From TrEMBL:
Names of the cofactor(s): Zn(2+)
Keywords, alphabetical: Hydrolase, Metal-binding, Nucleotide metabolism, Zinc
Marked site positions, Important for catalytic activity: H224
Protein name stated in the entry: Adenine deaminase
Organism: Pararobbsia alpina
Protein family membership: Belongs to the metallo-dependent hydrolases superfamily. Adenosine and AMP deaminases family. Adenine deaminase type 2 subfamily.
Length: 330
């Protein structure tokens, strides 16, 4: 218990967090009412009851429906502000948030409104409370690379205007049958502009997708990566190169990547020297914010003080802050 208290209080970074996945059912209904968006659920309770997922796709269907209530820059501001205030309670001192522009532009919401709202909340919370943050634009991998290229082009003015904060790109959505290699061109363009690169890989997809993300997309971190455990040479590669994995334990449990938290690969990967970090992914949908994720793995995998300290330290080391800020944080 004393140990758990210590880890709850420890300064930490959250590096895998989809801002649209922070929308709680109450917020979804409030935005729907305000924006006159029709939902397929009658009540907060009915919506929450639908959060019984069997795999990644069953979650994504509801997650995209939830995001449909976001229309105005103010909506993105309020959503982001609420998440950052919640993160402060977990002693998050730095966070790198994902957003999915294609989810919003296809509904006629300009990418400008999305980024403006999120960025303003980040700037306010940094000024008021010192919690620093960066933003990572993710492409939806269930759509063709052409769509990602168009979304990237559409967002170029945002990278110019908000370059200090909008620092990179990622790849998310349905992983099965959507390999990283399909997005080589758009990642090449982002790399040419000096952007930071990450991708979801090895959540539901095979270890080969992690190799592809590293070799073809040249990403610096792997989001999830928990199925790397099936490929010992890959585990060694990740450890030797200090490629961080942004692991999301409660997400993995809810989406049935593991049948029991006791069988989660986190501890084995950590023991093999991999730079594992703990994150919440979509906390409103998976039943817990970042500290809940630390507690869940600490209990199920019987983590010791060294392990928990390593996880928090890894999160600060794997962040995209510049070297002086990183030195100050650790
Ligand atoms: N979008 C939001 N959460 C995601 C996850 N865990 N995997 C893939 N796409 C996502
Ligand atoms: Zn994710």
């Amino acid at each position: 218990q004393a140990l758990l208290n210590k880890i709850l209080k420890a300064p930490k970074a959250e590096l895998h967090m989809h801002i649209e996945g922070s929308l709680e059912p109450e917020q979804i209904f409030a935005f729907a009412r305000r924006n006159k968006v029709k939902l397929a659920y009658d009540s907060v309770e009915a919506l929450r009851a639908a959060y019984a997922f069997t795999d990644l796709q069953s979650f994504l269907d509801i997650y995209y429906a939830g995001a449909s209530v976001l229309l105005k820059a103010d909506d993105f501001y309020e959503m982001t502000r609420a998440y950052l205030d919640r993160a402060r309670a977990d002693n998050v001192i730095h966070t790198e948030l994902f957003f999915d522009p294609q989810t919003h532009t296809e509904r006629g919401v300009p990418v400008q409104a999305v980024v403006e709202g999120i960025e303003a909340a980040m700037a306010d919370v940094e000024r008021e409370h010192g919690l620093t943050s960066k933003l990572i634009l993710c492409f939806l991998r269930h759509l063709p690379e052409q769509a990602a290229l168009a979304a990237f082009k559409d967002a170029l003015p945002m990278f110019e205007r908000y370059g200090d904060r909008l620092v990179g790109i990622g790849l998310d959505s349905s992983e099965r049958n959507h390999p990283p290699s399909s997005f080589a061109r758009v990642f090449g363009k982002a790399r040419d502009r000096g952007l930071r690169l990450v991708a979801h890989a090895g959540e539901e997809g095979p270890p080969a997708y992690i190799h592809e993300a590293l070799d073809i997309l040249r990403v610096e971190r792997i989001d999830h990566g928990v199925r790397s455990i099936e490929d010992p040479a890959l585990v060694k590669r990740l450890a030797d190169a200090r490629i961080a994995l942004t692991v999301c334990p409660l997400s993995n449990l809810k989406l049935m990547v593991f049948d029991d938290m006791k069988n989660h690969s986190l501890k084995t990967l950590l023991d093999a020297g991999v730079a594992v970090t703990v994150n919440s992914d979509d906390p409103a949908y998976f039943g817990g914010y970042v500290n809940d994720n630390y507690v869940a793995v600490a209990e199920a995998l019987e983590l010791g003080e060294q392990d928990l300290y390593a996880l928090a330290r890894n999160s600060l080391e794997a962040s995209f802050v510049d070297a002086p800020q990183r030195r100050a944080m650790i």
